[in-house]
Structure formats: C-alpha cells, structure tokens
Design goal:
Elements (H helix, E strand, L loop, with lengths): L1 E6 L12 H8 L4 E6 L12 E2 L9 E2 L1 H12 L5 E11 L2 H7 L4 E6 L15 E4 L9 H12 L9 H6 L17 E2 L2 E2 L9 H19 L2 H10 L1
Parallel strand pairs: 1-2, 1-6, 5-6, 5-7
Antiparallel strand pairs: 3-4, 8-9
Helix pairs in contact: 3-4
Length: 229
C-alpha cells in the first residue's frame, strides 16, 4: 500500500514512520509512506498557502490553488482514495480503517488553520476525524490514521489474529493481558490463564472484555449488542 501525505509541515513526520512496526513494514515493501510539502506548489514568491476568509471571521483558510496543484502532481493521474483530515469529518473507526486497508493507495490531506477552502472537497473522496476535539492541524490525525490502517494491511503485524483481538475490533475493549513471571510482588496471574484449557480461556477473556468495557466505556455495550443481533 502506498500512502501520500500532503501537509504544510512535513518536518512533523520526520522519523515517525521509520521505526517499529511501520519501519519494518516499509523495509519489507508492505508500505510506502511519502510526505509532500503543499508550500512547494504555491504560485506566489512567498509560498503563501492561506488567506482571510470571505465574509470575515477569525483565523485564516487554506487556499485551493496550492492544494489542487499538489494533489494533481502527487496523484499523477493514477487511482487513489483521497482523504481530508478535519474535525468535521466522520469518525475513524476500526471498521473504516479495515476498509481503507483494502485500497492500494491513499492520499491524506492535512487541514490546518481555520480550515480548507470548500472547493477542495471536489477533489476529496471523504473527510475523516479521529475524535470530537480540535487540534492545530491534520498532521497528528494523519499519523493516527496511517498507524491504524496499517495494522489491517496483510503482513504488517506478522499475525493476522493480532488485529482481530485488539480493543474495539469486536466492539469491546480488550481483555486483561499478563506475561511472566506468574507471580510478581505477590500479584498472581489468574490461574485460568495458566491451565492451558483453550475454551475456558476464551470464555474468561470474553467475560473480562465485557467487564472492562462496562467499567471504562459503557456506551460501547449498546453498540456491541446491536452487532450481535
């Protein structure tokens, strides 16, 4: 999968995708992540990319010209799914991330300032948000989206089961996890996890996931119920 990120601040991505899981995935040819500076496509000598909004109001708005030219140059006439990271977008969910992982190529546009000229939406396929809060720009959401989507790209995690077992994969939070030693400062790993009875372990994990979700995010239980109906 190739992912292009259009941004005013490419320096924010320096080193972010070069380590851990994403670094290995790129080294193995599973991911190709590239950043592009929108300022390089501004048609004015000061590389200006924003201006005052028509109708007045606080802040500045990203101009359409640099974005259009950047998008056209990066896409190069090839097929790609184009996403604008913005607080008004639909919420990024595990289900949507899994769907996005099926695309061969994504282009992410990082919004900034007070927003993006509405005409930019004519070259965008969807708007996404990572939560109901406002950040200074779309760079951090782009990082989150890349990491989230990459986990569903075959081979990136090494084990396909890993993505399925994580929090939110089935609508519930993840069950408690333990590793060695079995006794640490008097705190014991639950015996059921040590007896090797697979069916009982699965049952325990499901019960614990329900309990953890009820304690931490009870609103998710309603969604889980709808999925199982």
């Amino acid at each position: 999968m190739r992912i292009d990120i259009l941004t005013l601040f490419p320096e924010m991505f320096c080193g972010v995708f070069g380590t851990s899981m994403l670094g290995r995935a790129q080294a193995n040819g599973l991911l190709d992540i590239r950043t592009h500076n929108i300022r390089d496509y501004a048609d004015n000598k000061h590389r200006k990319t924003d201006d005052y909004p028509f109708g007045g109001g606080a802040g500045m708005v990203m101009m359409p010209q640099p974005i259009f030219d950047c998008m056209e140059a990066v896409q190069g006439g090839e097929t790609a799914h184009r996403i604008l990271l913005t607080p008004r977008g639909r919420l990024l969910t595990p289900e949507r991330a899994k769907e996005l992982a099926a695309f061969d190529r994504l282009i992410l546009l990082c919004g900034h300032y007070e927003g993006v000229d509405e005409r930019v939406n004519t070259i965008i396929d969807e708007e996404l948000s990572i939560g109901d809060y406002v950040l200074t720009g779309g760079e951090l959401p782009a990082m989150v989206l890349v990491d989230c989507v990459a986990r569903f790209v075959p081979g990136v995690l090494g084990s396909e089961q890993s993505a399925e077992d994580e929090s939110h994969s089935d609508g519930l939070l993840e069950y408690p996890q333990y590793t060695r030693p079995a006794n640490f400062r008097g705190m014991e790993v639950p015996e059921i996890l040590q007896n090797g009875h697979h069916a009982n372990i699965l049952k325990w994990r499901h019960e614990q996931a329900l309990l953890k979700t009820k304690q931490m995010r009870p609103v998710l239980l309603g969604r889980f119920g709808k999925k199982t109906e």
